Amino acid sequence: xxxxxxxxxxxxxxxxxxxxxxxxxxxxxxxxxxxxxxxxxxxxxxxxxxxxxxxxxxxxxxxxxxxxxxxxxxxxxxxxxxxxxxxxxxxxxxxxxxxxxxxxxxxxxxxxxxxxxxxxxxxxxxxxxxxxxxxxxxxxxxxxxxxxxxxxxxxxxxxxxxxxxxxxxxxxxxxxxxxxxxxxxxxxxxxxxxxxxxxxxxxxxxxxxxxxxxxxxxxxxxxxxxxxxxxxxxxxxxxxxxxxxxxxxxxxxxxxxxxxxx
Amino acid sequence: xxxxxxxxxxxxxxxxxxxxxxxxxxxxxxxxxxxxxxxxxxxxxxxxxxxxxxxxxxxxxxxxxxxxxxxxxxxxxxxxxxxxxxxxxxxxxxxxxxxxxxxxxxxxxxxxxxxxxxxxxxxxxxxxxxxxxxxxxxxxxxxxxxxxxxxxxxxxxxxxx
Lengths: 262, 161
Prior knowledge:
The complex is a heterodimer of chains A (262) and B (161).
Chain A: E1 7-8, E2 11-12, E3 15-24, E4 36-37, E5 50-52, E6 60-62, E7 77-80, H1 89-96, E8 106-113, H2 116-121, H3 125-142, H4 147-152, H5 158-163, H6 170-173, E9 194-197, H7 198-201, E10 203-210, H8 215-234, E11 242-247, E12 253-261
Antiparallel strand pairs in A: 1-2, 3-7, 3-8, 4-7, 5-6, 8-10, 9-10
Helix pairs in contact in A: 1-8, 3-8
Chain B: E1 9-16, E2 19-26, H1 28-37, E3 42-43, E4 51-53, E5 63-64, E6 76-77, E7 93-94, E8 109-113, H2 119-141, E9 144-152, H3 155-160
Parallel strand pairs in B: 6-7
Antiparallel strand pairs in B: 1-2, 2-8, 3-5, 4-8
């Protein structure tokens, strides 16, 4: 990384680019940010009737909106940002944040790095423990009252075990080239708090945040993930060690085999 | 850099900015083995896209052609040039780097692998690689001399005596 070092939140920024995924329900179309179907996002709308948007957007929306008592106008989905700099995240999130969220909606943050060594250094149980611990401390400082945030930090919670397990599967995950929705429970499951999707996106993905009810808290939480990561990398001081594989020479084999025929 | 040694196989693996740096040094018998059975034909990386020549390294990164996957009840792979060191799917250890042209030269050959890896996995891999490389050496490289003797026992002569 050449040139002047960028400082964000008091620490050198070692993150190259980031991406954010927002899940929820929208009442409006976000220009330049298409909705992507996500079957895991569900709103229990009683007897929903959808119709095609007459404006030609190709999207379906609730037929009797806005009389439908606060349900999302458009079919629940996710919006995935373009890759952007850390400093551009807040503006994008404020632009794209959905009007409706619930417990099925996750907030995922992806981080890429200028070099693979930094990526490798995050592949440790120590980093997983650090990010959970630091997010918990942040939540206490901010007095977060959202139960879903605390559930995701609790490794024993059934929802957490299913969607963002506190399990370290980095090496298996890093070689997965395609999203595998049936990987849950395997050594390459993507449903972990940190998903090392190197081969797919070149990123480390934090899946442990919920979609907060307000965008301000959501922005702070995502920025906290970036800060924790940068702080972790800045504390690494030891030189990389190498591993050696050596095969020793053996004495030649001499063997006699005899058979007597009667 | 690997110092000159008479170890049949000497491999060093380290994480760096490009992913991993692998240095392989073998005895001439190992390189000759692959050269002979591959017809003496050199090939660039064929299977995957992760292996890269070190910038500034003058000699092109080449490997001896080899088409038989040697695997007698052992989980290693000799064909997957350019792929991950642990093959996704099978989990086989990728030892195809032993086919590197020039691996028996002084200092061996070093190249980059665009792969990320945890320290714990590196340690596990090194342990497994050592056992499998030893198996390959004992099965195919270690000199072996067999004397087979078939004799005939003449019972009639015994009885005449």
